[in-house]
Amino acid sequence: MSETPRTLAEELRTRPDSGLADLLRARPDLLNPVPGDLTQLATRAGTRASVVRAVERLDRFALQTAEALAVAPDPCPYETLLGLMAGDAGAADLAPGTVTAVTAELPRALRTLRDQALVWGGDDRLRLVRTARELLAPGPAHPSPTGLGPTVAEATSGMSPGRLQEILAAAGLAATHDPVTAVAALTGLFEDRTRMATLLGGAPDEARAVLDRLVWGPPYGAVTDRPAAHLQWLLDRGLLLPAGPRNVVLPREAALHLRAGRAHRYPEPLPPALAPTTERDPQLVDSAAAGQAFTALATVEELLKEWDLGGPGVLRAGGLSVRDLKRTAAALDVTEQTAAFWLELAYSAGLLASDGEADERYAPTPAAEDWRQLPAEQRWTRLATAWLAATRTAGLVGTPDPKGRALSALGPNLDRSAAPEVRRRTLTLLASLTPGTSVPAEAVLDRLRWERPLRGAAQTPAPATNSGTRTAPRHPNPATASASASPSDTNAARNAGAPATPPAPDDLRSRIARWTLAEAELLGITGRGALATHTRVLLEAGAEAAPTGAEDPAARAASFLAPLLPEPLDHVLLQADLTAVAPGPLERPLADVLGVLADVESKGGATVYRFTPASVRRALDAGRSAAELQSFLAAHSRTPVPQPLAYLIDDVARRHGRLRVGAASAYVRCDDDALLTEILADRRAVALRLRRLAPTVLASAAPPEQLLEGLRAMGYAPAAESAEGDVLIARPDAYRTPPRTAPTPVPEGPPAPDPTLLEAAVRAIRAGDLAATAERKPATTPAPAPGALPRTTSAETLATMQAAVLTNATLWIGYVNADGAASQRVIAPVRVEGGFVTAYDHTADEVRTFPLHRITGVAELADETAS
């Protein structure tokens, strides 16, 4: 093989195994399935879907480099590429230091393109893979990202020889004998800086204004049947060439001269700085984040408690109705969008799910009980880890889907595969700052856009100013076209102090980044906009493989957070106005009982609970007696139990259970027949449709639940009973879904391969390439076509195998497995017996046994020392 590779496959053969592993790691789609050899790998790396995915992952300067190669000669020397990126020396419209930065960073960008197999060849013959050139080069159907039009040769391909000679004469060039030399002469004029400057020196001012508007793109425009004199001057000299019946285009060579040789208006070799920064005490940041983390835990617990006995129903199309989302938001005292975030977070963590019943509704899962029993710091790491990995995106709730219907919380179509990567990258940028430092959201978004450039931003045309031209249906008017930059140039224009183009509307990645910053503050990931210490530790999870024996990052994060969270209290302060004040978070048993016995009146640094007849009855329904409630409050109050509260408990308990409700549809029984007579005489009981069956029993056509609620609304305190006459205890955690697993994130493309898979894949590709390219000894039978399996008779195959066992030779075979898949292999036979050959398979790097009848043919390798 020659030193200069002629194809991408040949260049891949020169790479070390580590280089191939880096390529497969950067483009994991090339591994599915594992290519048979390097030719297959190169072919797959050039497919449109794979190239699009690779191009979308380039940073802005690497993308600008690829765009420049797309409009450069093929192949392109490094010096030519550098000229397209840096332009002529001393360009006045670039920020100071830009050319120096371009010169320093271009090798890095080129190395990135080489590593991802988008560019190959030596520095004297750089080649962009054909598919990438087709994607990035200008064409009639799509403009170039650089804003350049077609070359002179492309724009004049259908022009008559006579018209070409007229253009040469008007431009002051000598006539030629054929169109090819005429095009070459005009191209040479446009590429000659001195002669081109002389030509443009005689241009009318209006003609220069048209060129100034077209130079940075779009390069197309339209002219009327009788163009103005200044436009005719440009048409006569080929500075505008036909692009359709009434459309014209500025040729690429002329545009590059006007641009001082640059492919991009504002090259961006360096990422935007994360500035301006605001520095705070890291301890204050950690404290603020910890306080928000505690609030997040309280909010999720309140949500689970709200749905403890069964949440709202599931819509037929899936998800939560708008009305139920509003109710949940009101219960949590947050906005609907924030409520959607907490719902999605609990769902992603596996704490909420649908029960799957006929009358389907949402409820906490059994895992929610286990989560509630964990220490606060571990509960937070569970939520934060689930949020980092979730592809469900709460920010989309309420936005229209492709059919125009609003997306609902907990519903389908909320998965966005880019979300985990954007979240982690956003937080990693914050982690790159010194502890306690925050930056504006726009600075983070600018950096993310540089790392993954926006594509397809609209350009805004200027208002019409020339009556001799008009706007083309698909291209801007040459006299009025906006001189705006391509999407790649927006940030650099701002950094250089030049007038920037109108910013592109936020794409999905930018919106996810904005939501990430807001959700991180809600969850306690950040405090006052800066990354907290416990989050820096948590980000280590999933970033790289942890060394053996290293502590789990989630456990380390919990250890950092634990000292910052308030200690749970085992007491409250009872007050005479039937309230209890919890001066901080309560221990789990106390919080659970008090949550049933009283209603939360206000939340904040201290939580105020209020005791009411309904809340006390709720505790009695849960199986507590009055004496137990009195004892519980006395044991957990730093103040004596107030007399009004003791009277309230005793009064409700005295009346609780005197009435018994069962199924008749329902019945009411009571030993006090006077009380039943009172109920029958009450006009409010008409809806319950009661009738007396016995002095102590009333029957009702209403179901037991409705009868219970009706009697309670009338001021009574009935208790439900079983068929055996026992009081039914209604516990607050009585309803749970069946066991559920958290929703699986939807990955963005193939998963990143692990080192073991990469090593095996590279070994298999190398072995397959050896089998496909190894030189074979001449055979009497016709040689197989390239890529075809060798063909020999059964007798020849057996004889060659037996001879190879005696001589320790290495053979090339064609093999068809049990599934009918054909492959080429290089083997070293060890034993032939019973219709099988045992051999060392270089392709699989192991000893295998091959049935002889599945071997299509065999050939000896010219170099028997192959390994």
Overview of the structural elements:
The protein has 867 residues and is of the alpha+beta class. Helices cover 42% and strands 11% of the residues. The chain is built from 34 helices and 25 strands. The strands form 8 sheets. The chain has a 5-stranded mixed beta sheet, with helices on one face. The chain has a 5-stranded antiparallel beta sheet with strand order 24-23-22-21-25, with helices on both faces. The longest helix is centred in the middle third of the chain and has 25 residues, at 282-306.
Shape assignment: extended
Contiguous helical run count: 34
Q: In whole angstroms, how far apart are the ends?
A: 19 Å
Helix content: 40-55%
Task: Describe the oligomeric state of these chains in a short phrase.
Answer: single chain
Q: Which structural class do the helices and strands define?
A: alpha+beta
**pLDDT averaged over residues:** 84
Based on DSSP secondary structure assignment, what is the total number of beta strands?
Answer: 25
Rg over CA atoms: 38 Å
Percent of residues in beta strands: 5-15%
Poorly predicted tracts of residues: 455-505, 544-549
Strand order of the largest sheet: 18-19-17-16-20
Strand count, sense and barrel status of the largest sheet are: 5 strands, mixed
